[in-house]
Specification:
The complex is a heterodimer of chains A (509) and B (186). With 509 residues, chain A is α+β, with helices and mostly antiparallel strands. Chain A contains eight helices and eleven strands. Chain A has helices spanning 8-63, 67-74, 145-197, 210-315, 321-352, 362-376, 396-412, 472-482; strands spanning 83-90, 95-100, 121-130, 133-143, 358-361, 382-386, 391-394, 420-430, 433-440, 486-491, 497-504. In chain A, strand 1 (83-90) and strand 2 (95-100) form a beta hairpin. In chain B, 35% of the residues lie in helices and 23% in strands. In chain B, the strands form two sheets. In chain B, strands 3-4-2-5-6-7-8-10 form an eight-stranded mixed sheet, with helices on both faces. Chain B has a two-stranded antiparallel ribbon with strand order 1-9. The termini of chain B are far apart. Mean pLDDT of chain B is 83; it is low at 20-30. The chains are: A alpha+beta (509), B alpha/beta (186).
């Protein structure tokens, strides 16, 4: 048990010793004081009586003037050990007779009444009377030795009693305290032990009387409560831990699954990029192949068309109408094939040529292209609505190809329309991209074929109706995509088509 | 009490003073004379002696003095106006013992020393305190006999004689006296 200063038993012992000692001392002192005072008063009274008695006995001696008889009578006072002297004076205050045990002799003349007795003495003075007549005066001087000795004895007895009472009280109280305080000490040590090791199953085994027993019982009850709560706490903690563990496992599993998925995605991405590389290489191969094929096809085709022309100049007169017609079919086929080869070469070039990035004012570009296209469509009435076009960053030559294709298509597919109208405009820019549209009121097409529109050699109309190689829009898409842009279309049969091109807006700076 | 004592003291002193003035010997004016002391003692004896109750209560406390004329004058002067046993004291000078009837005290002068036995016989059986300053009075059958010891007056007491007459003498006085018994005196 840790204790600051004294333990409780020691404190109680000290307190009880102090209380008992001080009260005993106080009582003893008071008793001694009162007793001494009473003894002094008693002494005074007794000596007063003695003086009167002696006075009675010496009255006759005084009467018959017999000092010797008076002194003999006064000798009786020697039996009183405390009487130092007795002085008998006659009516004229002259010393008549005296008795001297010790000390100084009586004065010859009766002393002044107010004279105080010597130190440590008391004096009594009584008139000597006979039948009411004053015959003289008897003075007794008593020392207080006996009184003081008695006081000393009393004080000694008081000290002894106090000491004995203290010893007895300490013995009794320490024995009593043991029964009283043992439970408290047990309580304190148990509380300390509980505080040290948190073991709430401990109990205070000793009990005591009255409130202490109650205290011990309550403490034990409290410990039991704490123990049960602690157990509940531990249980709920275990439950919580179990749940956290389960949840952690589930999360880990989920994480593992996610990692597996990510791994799969990564693998797929790898495969994809690998495939992409393969496809790109394949595409390049195809393009170089088609370029070289196209290039190589041109030479024989030039021969064909050149010799057909020569044949027509030299031998046209020799041919009948049927021959003439056959020759024209051959010539047209050669021309068409040449066109096809040109387009293919252009497409291929657009795919491979180096891109330049300059500021291109679309307003000027479109106007330039429009004039060119209009020249080709001479004799037709076409309403042009062009305006509000932005400037973009890109390759002017390639962008020119884009708008040549889009505008010539618009002119081409509005051929049968009575009032042809071609609109070129722009939408508000978004995310740094501006969108330019080319809208016509031509034949249009069904949107379910829209996905085919931008493929090479894909045509929605018969060649007999509309001339073309089916490469133009593929070239457009290739150029726009190389510019980081996008191209799409909205159309309906007989309701015209609108082509949208989104391009990066040029930085004005 | 103190005042009363003082007053009485003053009265006694006054009496003593007048007594001194009247004294024939101026040399002993300061000191009481032998006869005055004896007279005072005679009076004081009334305080220490109990007489049996008389059949007929007398009107006076009679002190008879026989054969001492000068002393009777002193005593008469000194005891005048005093009371004893609640009666006024009367001093009577008598010529013969036969006149002592009714007296409580009989003082016999030393002049009658030769006739002491006859005188004593005359009051035998009566409750009379017999006092004398004649020599060996108590031994000869008297009750109190004065004698002089140096400068002081002392007395002898014959208790047996006193008791025989029905008198009781206080032990306080007996302590001061020389106690004697009746015997033949040469």
């Amino acid at each position: 048990v840790k204790a600051r200063g004294l333990t409780i038993p020691q404190r109680l012992l000290v307190a009880s010793a102090l209380a008992a000692g001080s009260s005993l001392l106080l009582a003893g002192t008071t008793l001694a004081f009162l007793d001494t005072r009473q003894a002094r008063a008693d002494l005074l009274m007794r000596r007063g009586i003695d003086a009167e008695m002696a006075g009675l006995h010496v009255s006759s001696a005084l009467t018959f003037e017999d000092p010797a008889a008076a002194e003999t009578t006064l000798q009786v006072l020697r039996l009183k050990a405390d009487i130092d002297r007795a002085c008998l004076y006659d009516r004229q205050d002259r010393l008549f007779a005296s008795f001297l045990a010790r000390g100084t002799a009586c004065p010859a003349q009766a002393p002044d009444r107010s004279g105080a007795p010597p130190r440590d003495h008391v004096a009594v003075s009584r008139p000597v009377l006979r039948n009411g007549e004053v015959l003289g005066r008897l003075e007794l001087l008593s020392n207080l030795d006996e009184l003081y000795a008695r006081s000393a004895r009393l004080i000694g007895a008081g000290i002894v009693v106090t000491a004995v009472a203290l010893a007895l009280g300490l013995a009794v109280s320490s024995r009593y305290q043991r029964t009283l305080l043992q439970p408290l000490v047990g309580l304190a040590s148990t509380a300390q032990a509980v505080a040290d090791d948190q073991d709430y199953s401990r109990r205070v085994m000793v009990t005591g009387p009255g409130e202490i027993g109650l205290l011990v019982d309550n403490f034990n009850g409290m410990l039991a409560q704490v123990e049960s709560r602690d157990r509940e706490l531990q249980e709920s903690k275990a439950e919580l831990e179990r749940r956290v563990l389960a949840r952690t496992e589930a999360l880990n599993e989920e994480l593992l699954g996610r990692r597996r998925n990510e791994e799969q995605i990564r693998r797929l991405n790898e495969q994809l990029s690998q495939r992409l590389g393969e496809v790109t290489a394949l595409n390049q191969e195809i393009e170089s192949f088609s370029y070289s094929v196209s290039h190589d096809l041109r030479a024989p085709l030039r021969h064909v068309s050149g010799f057909v022309d020569l044949f027509r100049e030299r031998c046209a007169a020799n041919l009948d109408a049927t021959g003439q017609r056959y020759l024209k079919v051959i010539s047209d086929g050669a021309t068409q094939m040449g066109q096809l080869i040109d387009d293919l070469l252009s497409f291929s070039r657009m795919s491979r040529a180096e891109l330049s990035h300059v500021r291109v004012a679309l307003e000027d570009l479109v106007e330039e292209v429009r004039r060119e296209v209009e020249r080709d469509a001479a004799g037709r009435e076409i309403e042009w609505v062009v305006g509000g076009l932005p400037a973009v960053s890109g390759d002017r030559a390639m962008l020119r190809v884009v708008f040549v294709n889009l505008l010539s298509n618009a002119v081409k597919y509005t051929r049968g329309v009575e009032r042809a109208k071609v609109e070129v405009g722009s939408r508000p820019e978004e995310n740094g991209h501006c969108t330019v549209f080319v809208k016509d009121n031509g034949v249009g097409f069904d949107m379910k074929y829209a996905h085919k529109l931008f493929g090479v050699f894909q045509r929605l109309h018969r060649s007999e109706d509309f001339a073309g190689t089916g490469i133009g829009l593929a070239t457009v898409r290739r150029i726009v995509s190389r510019h980081g842009g996008n191209v799409w279309v909205e159309a309906a049969p007989q309701k015209g088509a609108t082509f949208y091109v989104s391009l990066a807006r040029t930085e004005e700076a | 009490v103190v005042r009363r004592v003082a007053r009485r003291l003053a009265a006694v002193l006054l009496a003593a003073a007048s007594l001194c003035v009247a004294a024939s010997a101026p040399a002993v004016a300061q000191q009481a004379t032998d006869q005055e002391v004896k007279a005072a003692f005679l009076f004081q004896f009334t305080r220490f002696v109990e007489w049996p109750l008389p059949v007929n209560p007398p009107a006076e406390f009679v002190v008879a003095i026989l054969g001492a004329d000068q002393f009777s004058e002193v005593a008469a002067r000194l005891l005048q106006g005093k009371t004893a046993a609640d009666l006024p004291v009367a001093v009577r000078r008598i010529a013969a013992v036969g006149e002592a009837g009714g007296a409580r005290i009989l003082f016999v002068g030393s002049a009658e020393s030769a006739h002491v036995p006859e005188i004593l016989k005359g009051v035998e059986g009566a409750a009379v305190l017999t006092v004398s300053d004649s020599r060996a009075f108590a031994e000869r059958g008297g009750m109190i006999g004065f004698r002089t010891e140096g400068q002081r007056v002392r007395f002898d007491i014959n208790v047996v004689e006193a008791q025989r007459s029905g008198l009781r003498i206080s032990s306080d006085v007996l302590r001061l006296a020389r106690l004697v018994e009746t015997r033949s005196v040469p």
